[in-house]
User: Fold these one by one.
Assistant:
Number 1:
Amino acid sequence: MEQFPHLNFIGKVSGRPRLTGGGGSRISDENKSNRSVHAGKLQRWVTSTKSDWHTSLDDRSNDLAAIDTDIVPIFIKFNPGLIGPEFDLERFGIEIISEEEDGFIIGASLDNFRTLEEKINGFINSSHGTAQIADFWSIFDGDRSAWRRDRILSEQLFSKWDEIVDTTTYNLEVSVAFSRSIGSEPDRLKKGGEKRLEEYRRKQVERDELLLQRQNHFQEFIATYGRLISSIVEFGDSFGCEVAISGIGLKDLVTNYQFVFEVNEIEEVSGIEGGTGENNEIDIEILPPNASAVTVAVIDSGIMEGNKYISAAIDPTRSLSYLKNDASKADYVAGGGHGTKVAGAVLFPKGVSQINQPYQLPCFIRNVRILNALNQLTDKYPAELMQRVVADNADCKIFNLSVGSRAPYRFKHMSTWATSIDKLMHENNVLFLIAAGNISKDDIRYYLSNGLIYPNYLEEPDCRLSNPAQSSFALSVGSINHSTFTDHNWTSIGDVEEVSAYSRIGTGIWGHIKPDVVEYGGGMVESNNGMRQINYHTETSTELIRSTLHGGTALGRDSAGTSFATPKVAHIASLLWELYPDEGVNLIRALIVQGARLPSDHFFNPTINSIRHFGYGLPSLDRVTRNSDHRITFYNTGTIKAEEANLFSLKLPAELLNPGNEFDILIEVTLSYTANVRRTRQKTKSYLSTWLDWTSSKLDEKFEVFTGRTLVDLNNDRDNVVEDDDSGEVIKWKIRERSDWGSVDGLNRNNSTIQKDWVILKSYELPEEIGFSVRGHKGWDKDHRRIPYALTVSVEILGANIPIYESIRSENRVEIEAESETEVAIN
């Protein structure tokens, strides 16, 4: 296989984006017009909040944990138009603990409101630096316990709050905010660099000391009521851990501990057990992987390493077990194992019976056991465990995680588990593939028995993706049926290439397009006797390698699940990374999604449910790894920073544009990127240090005109962005960069870190040249550090046996050009 050709890089445009709108507000304007009235209200709210805080602390029992009385919890309603990725309240002496919806902020006054009161008093006289007091719309001075319970507790804990027993011990996951930005490390070689570097080092030491103080204080607080049961995991703006805490301690933590922003029950984590069906074994010649093959870490229940079909891919001396007091790496899960099936699906994505002999294994497998014989994760904090696994397997590029919570992901903050994966992917250039998760046979039966039909029941809240499949950077994989079946007793639930009956669906957190892709994970059957019995069946299950520790054969068709769809995508990823060994994770992500396609009419007429069920669709190994006479894919990789755009050009040959032709031409574009992350904020653009999007030129738009408008900020929150102007007709991409623009109503591709879109045009509609830009936008990183990305563009002729590859390739031969710099004026 040859690598895809590079997309023509034209140049770089840098300058500030031309932003429209502001943060102006009728309420803020009225506050400025009535300064004394507004200041009086704020002062009363502050006085009340401060009084209630100190009164409640005076009433606390001396047996409770020590708390700094000068740090006061505060709940603010702030002008939502001004809350962006870089937003903070430090100049008011307030640390943001959690950004909530609609301008609400959980904060902590670090100086007993002294700074805020000074600003309020100055606001009356229009003192310099106090104008933004008008944007403090309200300060909640009611029952602190009520608003903190509502905002900090998980739904389940909130519903049980009145049942919390003071003397009962609860195992929980706790997240604590800590935000101290010190900027990026200065260049010592620049003028004054040594002095600036010395100051930076001083701030770094100060920040580390403050973080340690907060962590130590938190541990002392917990020690009053219980203990930590995991290590502390840091996330830049916060840290998290698991604790065992008494009921009275839990109440004190939620009501009074100023820096806590999330308290969850510890979720049950597991894989999916199989059945007992068996296949006859097949004798085939198996060759070990190439020396250049990559290693896929299977994070699971262990692997039966001696299984004859997979043994040549595994080095037993490198296998690891993370189980407490159990060093075995074997797969003891009943019903043929779990990790063994997953490993087999990486190596034999179509099953053993479908391959040609001799068969060379595509990659190496690293056996990483984290689940016990009951297929459960116990005594481990998942966020910490992911860090250990990646650190201990530094030679692995790909990590398959067919393991997840039995509960759906939570909406507000990215979970510690998912955040840990995002952080590891960005910092270590590795790829995680995560199963979307399954709903149980009992749940399917319950939904069907209560009048919910397939697939509508998948829209129920409990059927959304399981944690950590909402990870912003990982590839999340759902499942579709590979067959349709019926006999006297059973009928398959759903037809071929419809969503599997058990597969959890998207969208993901903050409108992410999730799952990213789907694969054939097997289907389920329903009984024909009217009793709504749900089961696996050999005709709807995929062929998998089995562990024989509990008997049975080494092959079987007895299981179905997103657990077994995910490794089939890992198979594709392993071949891609062997083909592109010097490229980063973003190209691998982009090419997998670029080669995916929605099934049947969903591709031509996608709806939001198409995306919720299938993501971007089913990846084709041929499309992902190869060009053909009828399809050509280009790519480019690079780095970019906020307030910068990289420009690319795709030229189309004249013979394809002949007005007499009416060929259907498919153009697909995928952008993939990673960035640094933080947990205390919500929405993609606040979660990421820098966020990217891509735009295309309009039909018949001159490239210089496209360059001039390419840095216009198309932030989805700004409703006054104009779609059309005199520069030409827009290309009608399917999803688009605003939720009300594309044919998929309600989705915005810019909310995701993998942004794919496609369009089908008649050949005579095509311009001679299409321009693309990758644009960097400000997130929370005030230093605008560069982040990596990959851009892929494909052109394919549909429904006509006409070769286009060579003519398009020749038209786009990459020439070495000087990188141009263009400053864009600020409007």
Number 2:
Amino acid sequence: MATLTDSEIEKLFSGAPQYFARSEGHYTGAPHPSVAFPWDEELEIRDLTDHTQIEDKAWSCVTAWPHITRDVHSDRSAAQRATEEKRRAHFYPRCRERPNMLSMFGLEKGSVGYQAALELAVADALQEEQWGFENIGARQPAIVEQRQKMLTSKDGLRHVEETVIMEQLIKNSKRYSEKHLKERRVSSELYNELFLQVLHPPTKVLDHKDPYSLSVQILALVKVLAAPNMWIDFSHVEWRIRLGQLLWGSPVEDEIEDGSSIKTGDSASDINEERYWLLLQILLACELVIRLDAITEGEELGLESIRPAEIHKFEREANKSVKWSLIMARVWLENIEVVKTEATERTSTEEKPSGWLATLTKRMSLTRDSGSHNHHSRGPLYVIKGKHVQRQINGLAHFARRLRWPDTDFRVSKISDNCRAVVEGTPISTPLVTPSTHSSSRHSSYFGTPRGESKPERNPLRRRKVSAALHTSGWLSKSYVSGLMLPGEGICHFLMATLLENDPEALARLGTTANLCGGFVYWGKSFWSTACIVGRVLAAGKGAVECMGWISSDITPQGLGDGWVNIEVEQVPEDAQQVDKKARLWGKLAVERESRVLGDADPKSVFPADFIIPFENVYPDKKPPTIKIQLKALSLWAPVESVHTTPTEEEGPTPFTDVSRPPEIRTYPAAVTFEVTDVEAGEVKEHTYSLAKDINFVTAHPCVPSQHVRILKSPTSPTIQHVDLSGNGVAGKTASVVGHPLHKYFTYTALHLSELIAKRDFSLEALLGSYASASHRPSLTPASNSAAKVLVIDCITGFQPQPQEHEIPLSPVISRTDSQSSSYLSPAPPESSGGAEGGDVAGALQSASKKMHSETRRRQFGSDMEILVRAICAEKGWNALISRRRRGCLACAIREAGALGWKVVIRVD
């Protein structure tokens, strides 16, 4: 038999995603997982993704990856449009959040994408903390020593006055907005400014050809920012979240204390000192960004030349902490402006700012006497303001509407009115007052070691558990509304915290202590973080909505009223072992080898008989029963005492309740109960599944079917007898299959969901082993193998369809992927024509109406049956891919399972 040529192989796997893990270069950490279509040039195919697009510009800070944000608001201000028009060449550090937050929002609700699935095991949250917030009041000797050494050295940092820091920040903001920095600034001017005000000049000549070059300045700044034990390391997730707390989290004496206040020790000046060092770090990082942008733009315009040796030196010396400082500086320059005003005499009759947005325009006095209580002192005051407050408010309203927040229109209107009042009103000067020490500080850590308890031993959880105390006009809200948020999971917490902090009724009903990685019941609905297994399972239900890491569902726990809950969950043993350096992602060769389109075949000798056409719905011996599945209850069993509870003995009353002790967040084991009906036999049985394991679901990557499968028509192909390649509907064979072929290396077995439900005690290994050699079903495992590599759970065949309810989308489509490849195995829906539905994908040219139709269909995906199959996986501890027919073929899903090292594929209609 003739072997397949390279051209034939490329035709066979046209539109088939291929899975990679490649290093981005030296000093960049773990490899970068990616999906590509190396044999396709069509934009419609290369643009296919397994995750949703960012819906709102207010949420754009969620990732450091270059991306396109679809703006749902057309009423952009003139300032926003002007800012967008001034975009120029920017420097991007080769350092980004892990996991990739774009990939954290999979097309299937409650799922992630391929990149995030591999990066969860090397996530930023797995790092040990450098030094926590509780150490601000009692800083480690190494930190004090390093800072003193830096200030006394003649080859490093000068002593910079607070006013100089603020003036330089104002100047850098203006420079950043200029169209072409290189045309208006020369290197010598920037050199003099840097080394006369901020740094000491180099003690030796670094560049004999041009001692005042930008490269010299860049390396000097990198050297200072890379100094250990001196600056905040934003590579740690907690510090990214606490950035806003350090700027805004200090209450004045007569305000209610923030629940997550900083532990200031015995000296009230400690917090001001830490804010000084933070602002100095922001300044240095902004100076570095300005110069890196200038040299990048100069290279782009042919005005500057960078030597390879300089690039290598920069990559070597700019450690992860420096690169995260650059990311932080970029966020600052994009979203924050500092405005200088003259101080006026204050009288005791002046009113304090009112409203949760008014606090964003507080004046921060950083003069020498700002720490005193003398309000009659004159001197410059500096306002730290968000540039895009209205954009952030629109984003919050979008978030609330998407989650179907109770009484959305009324509450969003109140927030918008508050916003306009603050913008139009005259802010009142409020110098920064040194906070008094509060002995009843509730938490010293945002991630919450409860007061009085020792920190537990490090447990490498792939998803961190985050608790916070909410407070009206708190620093969580200020961080979001100002736009000062760093890439990573933080924005998901900020969005929900801001929504709750500014909904008085929600605070009254739910309390001020929040478990932002758990869930809560409110107004007859339940809201769950996707970090919680209950949220990831309920997301599969019809009508569930996902937005920015949160799930809204009409399913509520049985017998539970309004309030927060935490769910008891165990890690999957394999996941617990495969973290950091042991993560599968480091095995680059294994990831690619176990997902190759040619399997283990020699590329020079590939035969048509080496491939099969995978299927999940052919049962020649016995047709599976037609079953109907209905969810009966979500149950939370007796609470687990002393596990993730929040002690409240020392907490005082909140501003919204007279209760002296806010309710404790209890931890429950969760389970779901279903009623399964055999329609033909009329039997009804109940089944309960415990949501016990912290598993993950991945959206199988979309593909575009090959039109060349017929070249595999061969009597020696293992599955040819079961597949009708002619498309004529031959009796006894499956319908025409236009997916991709699968090499026989990828052994799998298909098991109908009804059989899985009928079993009670079984393991995945037993299922793979027994069904691989069973003679009563068409096995795709050669007899020489003892077990199949992948279990495909058939959730398509013989299920009684649920009635489709018409649903109007709340916003336009957020992903082109659904409409690109959603119907290549069925006729096109009447609302659309052409495009992907005919197999000729034209996603880049689709109209807004098609996108809205696609989003409607995406929201309609889901059923109680899909909740049930996810619940089985959660009970058994099976990480699983979700492969939706018409979006992607089974062969590509099985290969992706090989890349991830997973063994379960859920095949849904």
Number 3:
Amino acid sequence: MKKTNKMFKTKYHSLLLLFLVLSNNLDAQQLFTIVSAEVKASILIDKKDAKVVDIAARILVRDIQNISNKTIKINTVGKFSIIAGTLGKSKWIDDLVSKQKIEVSQVQGKWETYKIEVVDNPLKGIDKALVIVGSDRRATAYGLLEVSRMLNVSPWEWWADVTPDKKEELVLTINSKIYGEPSVKYRGVFLNDEDWGLQRWAALNYEPETGDIGPKTYAKVFELLLRLRANTIWPAMHKSTKAFYHYPENKVVADNYAIVIGSSHAEPMLSNINTEWDHEAMGEYRYDTNAEVIKKLFKKRAKETAKYDGIYTVGMRGEHDSPMIVGEDDTDSQVKLLERVIRDQRAILKQETKKDPTTTPQAFVPYKEVLNYYQSGLNLPEDITLVWTDDNYGYIRQLSNPEEQKRKGGAGVYYHTSYWGRPHDYLWLNSSNPVLMWEEMAKAFEFKSKDLWILNCGDIKPHEYSIELFLDMAWNMDNFEKSTAVKTHMNTWATREFGTESATEITNVLYENNRLSYIRRPEFMAWSQVEPVTKAGKTELTQFHYSDEVSARIDSHKKLVKTTEDLYKTIRNNRKDAFYQLVYYPIIGASKLNEKWLYSFKNKFTAKQGRVSANTFGDLSRAAFKRIEKETNYYNTELQNGKWNHIMTMTPRFLPVFSQPATSHIETEEQATLGLALEGYQMEVNDKIVNSYADVLPVFNSYTNSTYFIDVFVKGSGSINWEAKPKVDWIKLSESKGTLNSASGTPEKRIWVSIDWDKVPKGENKKEAPLGHDFQLIPPSFKVNSAIDFISEGKTTSIGVSVYNPKFEDLKNYNGFVEDKGYVSINAEHFTRKEKGKAANWTVFEGLGYTNNVITTLPRNAKPVVNIADILKHSPVLEYDFYSFNFGEVAVNLQAVPTHAPHAEYGVRVAVAIDNAAPVIVNFQTFGRSDIWKQNVLKNAAVQKVSQIVNKAGKHTLKVWMVDPGVMLDQILIDLGGWKSSYAFPKETKIIN
């Protein structure tokens, strides 16, 4: 009976599986054994297939050997075989097609498309085969390396030492599947600013026989690109590196790996002007006076690259990253000269390649001043790909309009996660927010930029994750429809690299690091600039308002460091070096660079108040600097036994931000006394000054449950005891007594003051709030006053405490925002209501902005709504309910992500109104490299202000309408006259019932 039931169940399950397959609800799954105790598969490729197929097969063999310690053979027929080949180029694949063993209609004729399936008894002597068929040579290579992915081999197994886990058996579960076509045709990276890492590492460590980035280094780069399903590179081009074509073998290696060579905006016709232009022999690099010599260089390059895959950058700029030199300095003359350059370049391509130039891949990059030429009417042939650029800080300057989207050559994007230039470099760490990169590239994709994506990734390290995300998006943008897809992708990445046990926590620490870096990149923490280089400036972070922004940022980084260090201890030994490179060093480096400057800011601030703690803060600043030195030295000299020596430089260009800040030192022989400093005051409490106004805390508001700090500190030398005694039981202190010591231990302590609102006498109940323009001048019936006595060495200092504790009927169960100290602060994603528009709607993007969420309207290509009547009738609107205790003219401050308009039809606009006022249009757009743009990109924030009227105290509604789609709102601050200076808007004043 049991046997009959078992047979019945087996038959039932088989029929069910067959039904599901036939109904397309489930792909047929088959097991394929590569290595086991009984099986060792082989790989069959056609020797006449492309070289890259052989290279990919050998990479797969190496991966299998690294996992299983077993070496499988290539081109030996076995009962279990991996058969890989390109349609029309492989006898094995073509034989399977002719015998109808495989169906290839979904692959044939496609760009970089491959299929993987298991075939039983495909050919004589083979019982089971894992068949990989590619539409072209790269597709076949991708397919072979897809097997490595299935074996959980990281693309970073060499570049970040992600050592594979050992397994005795390698058995794959295969679903017959088509991979491709890719979302973006050409996908790759630009090796740039290599002076500080990659070139030195190659020349001094990895490839000393060349003394440069040469064929050996490029082979490793190309292998990485294949593993990441990329196909294009813009090679390194600084003067520290000889031109790519200086080494004849480079182009051969590129062709062997099937990598397409392109070049940057400053390298026309695959020529590296930096190193190939010899002023002494060739004269001035200007086309209006020296065109024949320049064309000679173009002809030479076109001729030697004619038989290789390449994308020729057309047009011309000056040497390195400078504008083109022209005789007549007017835009019309520049445009005409550039058109002449392009005509001549296409003639050269026709002559030297013997091909129609309309079929030869070409790119035009309207970067910096060239964008102005293009906007001024430059005539560009339709078959040339328009490669749009970001503004060097992650915000794409322009995208194709509807007419440009019809161009035969299509469009692409050149994007930065590393940059050398004004207003400030970011060359050391990868401080670019991945969700911002997703948002901008998703926008580009929506505006039909699908032909070429290039990421300026600097030295590759430490840009590993961003490179993979960028290329995964380019491979299949369908996987990245929502902002949350980035976190999902990162978690999958962390799982592959470090296992499920730590993936979520790793993702969270990386997201927190991204959030802090978005608010201020670590490389910008000195408040200095470049071109020209300036000394460290004064921080905009406040130390005495809004809970002390400097200390809050220090605390965030200290938590981040602690979590990262704790995680490091839990990582498996074979992945510790990978964790160090991919997570540990980038986070510790960013945090310690922050701490170095933040503690120096605290040192200067406290030294002015005579606090002995200034010395401790100076020590902590120096300790942070030394930690960076220590970790960088470990990265270069000890990690992987010196494999990466010279790859990491903690002081690229030796800019002020990377140096040890000067600090103040307090020397005193005076006897120790107690000092006090309160939130809200730049000066300390000074009993010698009558009515100093520095001895009363800001008003506590019951509706926002305010808390404030008091610093107790040593002035002078020695130890002191202190005690704090609230005069009423409703004042709560985080600590009420302690000992301070000037020489060691604790020279200061921060005391947090809060209120037990259940014990505070209630204010009067009224329907309306009190009048008055200054929140500090609240009528006595609404304020309750008391104090805290601080006692030390027989001396008592009283600190005033005032609480605002009314009970308004209007605020009972009120679900909105409330005024606090003369302002209302709102996180834009926390709307009270939203209404969908005629063609767009508001949506939240997670992982971006100061609050880690922004709100925007989609689709990004919806039509702008600019007429006020149409805005009121058709635009999606956000509504924020708020309650004010004051009234009159107010300033509505809106903070947005500093994006640019996609093209001339658009702006970066929203419309704003309070209550029933007519909407006022606000535009965040900037132009060129204006001072406003510089501040926006340094701060990753665009702030605009509009005046509105609050006609009475009480309930109101702020309304924000879409004018242009895609504007990302981050924070809103309604200033009724009380907002003090701060870097970020104060925390939300959300009502707490």
